[in-house]
């Protein structure tokens, strides 16, 4: 039976008269003045953009290639935390809806005096709370966003908040059953819980509801409180963004407990393929044979959440999806900066090698028993022998059996180790010790099932992260599969207990 979400506690548009009726502080008056010049009705979201002197290049790109091209400029409110940002907004035709925020505020909690810190992000959420209180929907959008289409018609509007995910597949974006293992507890050793990646406050659509207003006010106060605890004027752009990210996700996910009361907002995670973060766009979409074809798929928006300081990537995203400039998009690395010649050559060699492996793997006979020598020659082989159960795009069970057979939800298959770089054929797994002459590849294998052959490359899930530990993963706990023939890309993960993907 299809579930029906609860009715939203919508703030009526008539509430605007109370909010903007002449009272309130300076920020409320400035916001109401800006809102009075924004066109559209209650269902047409106001685009709220916060910018200071560090956001000028990104703001210019968003305004010209996003808002102006899509004819959305008359629905934008700019929260300007620097004179340069206000000046630029005026030059870009957004001056009539600028809410100017001073760079310092009086610290009334401590008896006056100047609190020297940037208030851009906190004030963005205060402006959002005021706008929502007048009965208008709002889309909070970071300047470092490539807005390819008008997102207004893509929201479900069945939740208080709809936000872009930091995830890059179904498992990371929508969550999974996370298992904690405590062997000392014997039969009750496995404890189940949900785990999902955070959502992005840099692209969040809010309906005008009581819960959304409460959440926006809470996020603003949390950001401001965090800044006060840091003390002084924050010089790190990342520190401000981290404070907002933490405050927003705590307000979204933390349950009421102790003295804390949750805002109670119903949440929806936006489709991560339509509303993409930059990790998904650069590490996966541009390499997938289907999704890299802009005629077959183009996101509504791409947030540079993983590459916030590389605003030139915005131009590359626009050039790719609007003009078909593949070279510009592919000039950037998955991680930081542009690709070096070595990275480009390595990527080309990997693609050529995968093609050879696909050709060989498609004709390979079903794998038979591996010898201990063959398995022990590869650290990956040892890991797979130890962790036979995996997920495939979040679907379980998916098992690599030690005799070279593969068990999947789509029927039986086979998997084989592949030779180290330089050998074009799939390694023999006939069980003869003489076959160990060519050592297996350090992190790749070929799998065939359901009539298709796939090349799997294994790695630690957060190989580019902060190291091991909680969430750090083991050496080969994730693979990226490319399907031979159509280039479809899938992510798989090791399973910590039967049926539970890590």
Automatic annotation (TrEMBL):
Gene Ontology MF: a single term: glycosyltransferase activity
Pfam families: Nucleotid_trans (PF03407)
GO biological process: root hair cell development
Domain of life, source organism: Eukaryota
UniProt domain Nucleotide-diphospho-sugar transferase: residue ranges: 73-308
PANTHER family the UniProt entry points to: ARABINOSYLTRANSFERASE RRA3 (PTHR46581)
Protein name per the record: Nucleotide-diphospho-sugar transferase domain-containing protein
Organism, as annotated: Micromonas pusilla
